[in-house]
Specification:
The structure is a homodimer of 117-residue chains.
Chain A (H helix, E strand, L loop, with lengths): L3 E3 L7 E2 L7 E7 L8 E7 L4 E5 L3 E15 L2 E5 L4 E4 L4 E18 L2 H6 L1
Antiparallel strand pairs in A: 2-3, 3-4, 4-9, 5-9, 6-7, 6-8, 6-9
């Protein structure tokens, strides 16, 4: 692999699997490219909810808007420039608010492969 | 581990090893915490230069300012909301510019352990 730069405009957004809401993910690096991590951008419409049990460690950096994540540890909320780490095995409910949200994410290992297992 | 949220104010910044410039890194999750990735924030003063050969895959999300990264593939430049992926094994020169930069980063595996090997 080589050093690469990515902008949100490089992401081909697809609806997150298993949900029908206005939540989209677009990988820019994943299992097709030979790196150990998946890198991508996420886009959340306003007032969306996504519940899942993490099959990978997922690190989200909020770029725009705000996300709240509820888990057994309580609820955390992050705005621009803040990070939420969702460890593998945790059951989480991710919520966007009135302004929606845009995120950058890194997962280890590749989330699409982990979901397919 | 539990779900956690981090802001740049949570990072205890230390000068990056092997350099004497105005470049600091502050891990918020690393080998002490049981996750497979290191998560942190970086801070670059203006017009700084850091050259290194990557011992890990490093994903930087630029939060403020701008960074340029030169490698055998050429030079890429990223501003707020953009990502630079520096794969393991690449030799890179990271440059900040007049406005400095703040980043969020994720490395796999843990960069402090990889440097100690």
């Amino acid at each position: 692999m080589r050093v690469q730069k990515f902008a949100v405009s490089d992401a081909a957004f697809e609806r997150s699997p298993g949900q029908t809401g206005d939540i989209f993910a677009g990988n820019v690096v994943d299992q097709r490219h030979g790196a150990p991590v998946t890198i991508g951008f996420g886009r959340y419409g306003k007032n969306q909810t996504l519940e899942e049990t993490m099959t990978v460690d997922d690190v989200m950096v909020v770029l725009e808007g705000r996300l709240s994540v509820s888990s057994k540890a309580g609820t955390v909320s992050a705005g621009p420039g803040e990070i939420i780490h969702m460890p593998k095995g945790e059951t989480v409910t991710i919520r966007s608010h009135e302004e929606g949200a845009v995120t950058a994410y890194v997962t280890y290992p590749h989330w699409q492969e982990a979901r397919a297992d």
